[in-house]
Amino acid sequence: MSRSKLSTVRQPVSLALKMASGLALKTASGLALKTASGLVLAALLGACSAPVKDMTAGMSPEKIYDNAKEDMGVGAWDKAIALLDKLEGRAAGTPLAQQAQLDKAYAHFKNLEPAQALATLDRFTKLHPASPAYDYALYLKGVINFNDDLGLFSSITRQDLAERDQKAAKESFEAFRELTTRFPNSKYAPDAALRMGYIVNSLAQYEVHVARYYFNRGAYLAAINRAQQAITDYRDAPAVEEALVILVKSYESLNMAQLRDDTLRVLESNFPNSEFLGKGLRNRAKPWWQFW
Q1: How many CB atoms lie within 10 A of CB 234?
Q2: Torsion angle of the four alpha carbons 67, 71, 74, 75, in this order, in degrees rounded to the nearest 10
Q3: What is the pTM of this model?
Q4: What is the phi/psi pair of residue 281, to 5°?
Q5: How far apart are CA 145 and CA 196, in angstroms?
Q6: Which of 40, 74, 234, 248 is within CB 3.0–4.6 Å of 204 for a Cys-Cys bond?
């Protein structure tokens, strides 16, 4: 065979060997990459499936409770709640488990989780109707719903309890009323009674607030209905004074002279020194942001 023919034969063989070598390297690299990926994935799956270490394992219920109280003392509410959950299971059926429930409700409340706090209290009252701490459960339920601290935005908008939705206020009142009725000698009863007085006036003031809103917009019949509602339901509340004034002004606007005069006599008889007799309806100060 001539040199030229031999060269022609060798070139394809050499090219084929190079291609085979490259393919082998790529295959080996791919297998190595897949093997490495598989090992990493297996390691991750192993880490995920590894059981989380229970830090309370071997602790007595009393020790768990002590740790939870320490966390509560420094405001670590999430940690305290987790420990109290553990304690409920470990000490089930004991007074310590009851205490854990109550403390957990309080921790949820302080952690700005009122729904969870109320759910915990509802479960406590259903499971332990004869508990010596039942009065505290009612008191805490009332306090959570009372929500007398509206925070930063209440100071900016000057919004008070009477101008907010009254569902929580009514539920708070019911809890305090049950407490003072069933446990009149409870150490929580005096404070509950004070809060009840505040709630009653806020509920009356809410009706007056709505009546004032209708009056200022010329809806005099609606104003009369809400003012009468306040007088009927909360006759001993201070807000009744303004409710009577709204009635007088609404009857006057509707040219109902007889009803106006009758209501004015009631106002003068019950509130002879009323500031409304000379000044008219209360004009609440505007928030700083309201320019109109």
Answers
A1: 21
A2: -160
A3: 0.67
A4: -70, 150
A5: 12
A6: 234
Quick one: DSSP state of residue 51?
P
User: Cβ distance 245 to 274 under 8 Å?
Assistant: yes
Query: What is the C-alpha separation between 136 and 27, in angstroms, rounded?
Result: 73
Amino acid at 210: V
pLDDT along the chain (292 residues), means of 10: 43 42 48 51 53 74 94 96 92 92 96 95 95 97 77 42 69 96 97 94 91 96 96 92 95 96 94 79 41 31
Which of helix, strand or coil describes residue 237?
coil
Query: What CA–CA distances, in Å, run from 213 to 209, 210, 276, 284, 287?
Result: 6, 5, 17, 11, 17
Distance separating alpha carbons of residues 65 and 80, to the nearest angstrom: 9
- For the record, the structure tokens of 171 come out as 């539920």
Tokens of 158: 């000057």
Q: Which residue has the tokens 């085979």?
A: 20
Q: Is the Cβ–Cβ distance between 8 and 15 less than 8 Å?
A: no
| Residue found under tokens 């006599």 | 265
